[in-house]
Design the sequence.
């Protein structure tokens, strides 16, 4: 109850809400006001009229993201509507700004009609450099995302669909390396076939998990092709298998990835898994299994949750601000799953780097060091199918990069491979830890510095602490 009061006071004082609009140019004198509005604004308007690409030179569009919802699936609350969803949307705006220096307009739409939602967002395209969808109930939210991603010429990202999935893939890369298992050989059980589960399933397949090695379950049991209640986004992962229940599917499995509800995973199920199992219980606010209980169930277990108070936290905030930062920097017109995998690989690699000085300062001078390097280099998929780097991800976007002034990315794949913008994205992803820790020293200091600590030490050789916190 005390925490409720503190949160309400935080949002109410000293002025209501968490965001405001601040000018980026001096606008105090009469001359500066004339430059900012009339007649000054007419000159860049004329330039943009003759060259639409000039909008990125003269306006803030290239660093402005629209965060949109209709409030039908707010975490922990469900369908509360657009007005009640606004605090969560403002929170997203704070994270974008604090962690990646991206400006945000949050927009809450009063409609549950997917067609009206799509039509409204498409009309807003001239305003934004990118669109972030959040807290829209499935399956409508997935249909909205697919239509907007295919129709718009700016990147569209579904935060619930992919942000947790990217971090989970980074954690899985490092976890499998620790236990010396190949992604093409592990048996994966995914519990949850909603929005988050669908994003995880899509990236698992992209990462290299064969279709025959992936079992997906929802509240009605296995996602079987003979079921008549499957939704369109579930059918690509339907598989005929005798293990109809979650308990049956986990026997001998290597990986459990939960995106469902609290308490669905029992200790008996964990004990039935294969040697050196990996358990990611990512449901919030209550994980599929209690961290401490799972940790004590067997000594060879690697376990992670989506809760920041435990080691090995798989947190969506480690992905979406920086994915957008990279996409905006190269003026990409789409965020593909190959680009998301590139971000996951960069995040996994970042976890193995030396802990940056900002983190030490955030913890009062305490020094952190990485655990020993795993016994062998990771072998994730066959050499004939190398996991895509960000450069190759950009190569797979011929025609997807918008030409703009002063040497920005060109439409051809060859130019995309050579452009400095690809290096900028590498720098962006590679600097996630430093950027996170830097902002963490401000008013988000403890929360995000702790996330960074867990990313660098725990998530990073992931969760190397199977027998206790690092």
Sequence:
């Amino acid at each position: 109850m005390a925490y409720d009061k503190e949160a309400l006071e935080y949002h109410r004082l000293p002025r209501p809400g968490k965001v405001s609009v601040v000018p980026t140019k001096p606008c105090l004198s009469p001359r500066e006001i004339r430059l900012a509005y009339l007649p000054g604004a007419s000159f860049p308007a004329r330039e943009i009229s003759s060259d639409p690409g000039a909008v990125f030179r003269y306006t803030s569009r290239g660093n402005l993201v629209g965060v949109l919802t209709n409030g039908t699936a707010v975490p922990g609350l469900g369908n509360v509507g657009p007005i009640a969803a606004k605090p969560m949307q403002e929170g997203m705006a704070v994270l974008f700004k604090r962690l990646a220096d991206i400006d945000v307009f949050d927009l809450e739409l009063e409609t549950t009609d997917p067609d009206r939602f799509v039509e409204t967002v498409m009309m807003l395209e001239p305003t934004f450099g990118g669109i972030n969808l959040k807290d829209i109930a499935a399956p409508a939210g997935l249909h909205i995302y697919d239509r907007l991603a295919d129709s718009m010429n700016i990147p569209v990202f579904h935060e619930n669909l992919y942000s947790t999935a990217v971090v989970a893939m980074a954690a899985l890369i490092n976890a499998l390396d620790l236990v010396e298992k190949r992604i093409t050989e592990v048996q994966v059980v995914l519990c949850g076939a909603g929005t988050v589960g669908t994003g995880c399933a899509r990236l698992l397949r992209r990462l290299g998990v064969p279709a025959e090695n992936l079992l997906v379950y929802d509240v009605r049991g296995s996602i079987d092709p003979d079921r008549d209640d499957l939704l369109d986004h579930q059918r690509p992962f339907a598989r005929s298998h005798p293990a109809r229940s979650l308990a049956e599917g986990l026997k001998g499995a290597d990986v459990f990835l939960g995106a469902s509800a609290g308490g669905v995973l029992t200790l008996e199920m964990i004990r039935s898994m294969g040697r050196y199992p990996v358990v990611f219980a990512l449901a919030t606010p209550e994980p599929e299994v209690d961290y401490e209980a799972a940790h004590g169930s067997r000594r060879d277990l690697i376990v992670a949750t989506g809760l920041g108070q435990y080691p090995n936290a798989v947190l969506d905030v480690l992905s979406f601000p920086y994915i957008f930062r990279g996409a905006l920097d190269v003026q990409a017109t789409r965020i593909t799953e190959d680009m998301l995998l590139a971000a996951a690989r960069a995040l996994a690699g970042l976890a193995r780097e030396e802990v940056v000085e900002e983190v030490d300062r955030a913890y009062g001078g305490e020094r952190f060091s990485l655990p020993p390097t795993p016994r062998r280099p990771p072998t994730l998929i066959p050499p004939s199918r190398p996991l895509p780097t960000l450069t190759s991800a950009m190569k797979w976007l011929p025609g997807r990069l918008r030409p703009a002034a002063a040497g920005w990315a060109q439409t051809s794949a060859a130019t995309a491979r050579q452009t400095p913008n690809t290096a900028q994205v590498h720098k962006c992803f590679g600097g996630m830890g430093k950027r996170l820790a830097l902002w963490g020293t401000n008013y988000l200091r403890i929360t995000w510095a702790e996330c960074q600590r867990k990313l660098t030490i725990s998530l990073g050789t992931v969760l190397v602490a199977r027998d206790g916190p690092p």
In short: The beta strands are 64-69, 103-108, 130-133, 156-158, 188-191, 214-218, 221-222, 255-258, 278-281, 302-305.
